[in-house]
Amino acid sequence: MAQNSALYRITADLLDGSALSLSSFAGKVLLIVNTASQCGFTPQYTALEDLYRDYNSRGFEVLAFPSNQFGNQEPGSAQEIAQFCQRNYGVSFPVFAKIDVNGSAAHPLFELLTRARRGVLGTRRIKWNFTKFLVDREGSVVARFAPSTEPAKLRSFIELLLKKPAQP
Fold it and tell me: Which residues are known to be catalytic?
């Protein structure tokens, strides 16, 4: 099975509880991030929103997946997470329901992402909140970035991927 077709067969719940197939993002460049509201990296929401606003009209999406697996830094309910993201950072990109990104209950999306792009020393495990995965228009995971990587530093990668047209 091709990696790109696998990504588009995954479904995830949004904060409002509705299911969304990732096939709705086929042909777009994606930045997929595991997030948390009470993390030292939480201010990256501002830069993620800037990327989204700058590139969305060209076929770019940011997809945020809150996780409470790191230091209990995302303890809130779906409604609390939505209010926090909107009130503090004006987030307008899709924020999904809280998930696990590691372990036996890891969401299938993060299973696919960590299989495709390993971290430092070849580990699959997500080490902390705000690990970022860049996906091309065909659904291939092309890069993984550490939580400490500022989203603004991804602009050149995003621009390169946006210049490449989607394959039919």
Answer: 39
